[in-house]
Amino acid sequence: MEGITLTPVILDTHTFVWLLEGHKRIGKTSRSLIQKATKSDQLFLSAISPWEIAMLVSKGRLAFDRDVCEWLKTALSLPGISLEPLSLEISVASTRLPGNIHLDPADRIITATARHLKAILVTEDSVLLDYSKLGHVKCQRAGI
Question: Residue 111 sits in a domain of what CATH number?
Answer without folding.
Answer: 3.40.50.1010
